[in-house]
Amino acid sequence: MKLDNGWVTFASAGQAFPGYFARPVGATAGGPAVVIIHEAFGVDGYIEDVVNRFATAGYETLAPDLLSPGGARPEELTRPRIEAASAFLNVNPAGWSNPAARQEALARLPEKERASIAATLGKLFTPDDQRAARLARYTEVLAAAVAHLRGSAPDRKVAAVGFCMGGALSGLLAAAEPTLNAAVIFYGTVPPAEKLSAIKCPLLGHYAEPDPRITPHVPGFAEAMKAQGTPFEFHVYPGARHAFFNDTAGAFNLDASRAAFARTLSFLLQQLT
């Protein structure tokens, strides 16, 4: 399928944000749309490819770059710096959740490389006391992206699909944006308990087994959704690791990725038609 794709800019609270978009050539104006929410690394080649995949499936698709308030990233978060940090974490996966292991691995690098990657990771890893505020601001930006997609077609159906940090944000957006038609969560942390009652749109979740920081909390999330009448279908993929959908990362799992993508497209067809 031929696509129109490229970059657009939209505004949120007076700040400009770029987003990578794609849509089928000749698509009907106001047709169904999807907001893709990136991992911690921002919009990169992998996320651009994901956007193109959903556009090829028939959706106008937009991935806001949450790392670019004002229209550009800070030096520590430019694509080459992000790629170096991502490669470091692929080789040292314990560094994701274990600060001591991260520092130990950094100490083995040459000084210049160590300083560069450490500065980038310092921007990417939000201290616990700042995380809620950062996610709240990101959620505002994503709500503006939904509004941008609707533009002159306010009745357009829009879903969110998020990965890792973006998976958590997909759930938070569902709680914050009452007009969202559906949300898909790929291995994202469960929304805080106080936000669950605000979620009204249907949800689809994809989780790895094992993923001890996230997956054990999903059954309680599902029970809360069932109790309030919010549809939530979720799948746990045995043998898959966190980030199993990312085909540029060491955790990529073809079987789990294929099944999750097929289920996601079926869910979107049902909810956005």
Secondary-structure topology with pairs:
Elements: E1 3-12, E2 15-24, E3 33-37, H1 45-56, E4 60-64, H2 79-91, H3 99-107, H4 111-124, H5 128-150, E5 158-163, H6 165-176, E6 182-186, E7 203-209, H7 218-228, E8 232-238, H8 254-272
Parallel strand pairs: 3-4, 3-5, 5-6, 6-7, 7-8
Antiparallel strand pairs: 1-2, 2-4
Helix-strand string? EEEHEHHHHEHEEHEH
How much of the polypeptide forms β-strand, as a percent range?
15-25%
Query: If classified by CATH, what would the architecture of the largest domain be?
Result: 3-Layer(aba) Sandwich
CATH 4th-level superfamily of the largest domain: Alpha/Beta hydrolase fold, catalytic domain
Structure report:
The structure is a single chain. This protein folds into 2 domains: 3-71 and 132-272, Rossmann fold (3-Layer(aba) Sandwich), CATH 3.40.50; 75-125, no CATH class. Helix content is 41%, strand content 20%. The protein has 8 helices and 8 strands; from the N terminus they run E-E-E-H-E-H-H-H-H-E-H-E-E-H-E-H. The chain has helices at residues 45-56, 79-91, 99-107, 111-124, 128-150, 165-176, 218-228, 254-272, and strands spanning 3-12, 15-24, 33-37, 60-64, 158-163, 182-186, 203-209, 232-238. An 8-stranded mixed beta sheet has the order 1-2-4-3-5-6-7-8, sandwiched between helices. The mean pLDDT is 96.
